[in-house]
Design a protein that fits this description.
This protein is of the alpha/beta class. Helix content is 27%, strand content 23%. The chain is built from eight helices and 13 strands. A six-stranded mixed sheet has the order 10-2-1-13-12-11. A three-stranded mixed sheet has the order 5-6-7. A hairpin with a 2-residue loop joins strand 11 and strand 12. The longest helix is centred in the middle third of the chain and has 12 residues. The chain is globular. The two termini are 35 Å apart. The mean pLDDT is 95.
């Protein structure tokens, strides 16, 4: 059985970036496993496709929240992409960086490398923005554009906000995130620019990167207390793949779920 240098579980926003970076040298063999299908549907490409419920539902895990007692037990649909590109293939394309205070708090809790001074340069390296500043990137793979030709209602809203005393912020991914301004979108040439479009598709030309789609990982394989591979299902058959390193990129729900299914974590 072939032993991969890396197996990445989940071809979502994180998985696509990692697949690109880990295969960049051409020396490391990388297997990327995605439970969903390729993101070729036209409804996933054109921005207006986010209103096409059937297309979105087909490429979504179908999660719902528990009833919220503070809102008359309302249940929310929790969209999580089950498709190459993950949630970046079905979301509203709004581009918003994390807040610097959050990263600094995580660093202060002992998470080395998570301070804003460590994270913000990574954001800069990934993006190709139409903003020009010391902390915005202009030569990365992810295309980020500011809304042009906004609807008159949007212009009126921003004007009214100023009248009400709120500051205009021309770059809410810059030094300060407070204020009112025009949205930044992950779009390129009038189409969605998902993580798959930006990072994965160029990398798939490399011989050392392999993508499996419609392959659902059921369990992490463990040898001598170390993860040594994965067990996955594809076309109603079960397979195993071995690797020196396994990276979980299944998102906030599926990554911890897979750990628990593999006997790692809380047994309750």
């Amino acid at each position: 059985m072939k032993v991969w240098d890396y197996i990445i579980i989940g071809a979502g926003s994180a998985g696509c970036v990692l697949a690109n970076k880990l295969s960049e040298s051409g020396k490391q063999s990388v297997l990327l496993i995605e439970a969903g299908d390729k993101n070729n549907a036209i409804g996933l490409k054109i921005p207006a496709g986010i209103s096409h419920a059937r297309t979105i539902a087909k490429n979504d895990w179908g999660y719902n929240s528990e009833p919220d007692p503070t809102r008359y037990n309302r249940i929310e649909q929790w969209l999580r992409g089950r498709v190459v590109g993950g949630s970046s293939s079905i979301n509203g394309m709004m581009y918003v960086r994390g807040n610097t205070a959050d990263y600094d708090r995580w660093s202060a809790m002992g998470n080395t490398g998570w301070a804003s001074k460590d994270i913000m340069p990574l954001f800069k390296s990934l993006e190709c923005s139409d903003k020009v500043s010391d902390i915005r990137g202009n030569d990365g793979l992810l295309k980020v554009k500011t809304v042009k030709g906004a609807h008159p209602v949007t212009d009126a809203f921003i004007e009214a906000s100023q009248t009400a005393g709120y500051a205009v912020n021309n770059d809410f991914n810059g030094e300060c995130q407070e204020g009112v301004g025009y949205a930044e979108l992950t779009q390129r040439g009038g189409l969605r620019c998902s993580a798959a479009d930006a990072f994965l598709k160029p990398a798939l030309k490399r011989k050392n990167l392999t993508l499996y789609v419609n392959a659902y990982v059921h369990k992490l394989l463990i040898t001598n207390n170390c993860v040594s591979g994965v067990r996955y299902e594809s076309k109603n058959k079960t397979y195993e793949a071995r690797s020196r390193r396994v990276v979980l990129c299944g998102g906030a729900i599926n990554s911890p779920q897979l750990l628990m299914l593999s006997g790692i974590g809380d047994t309750a």
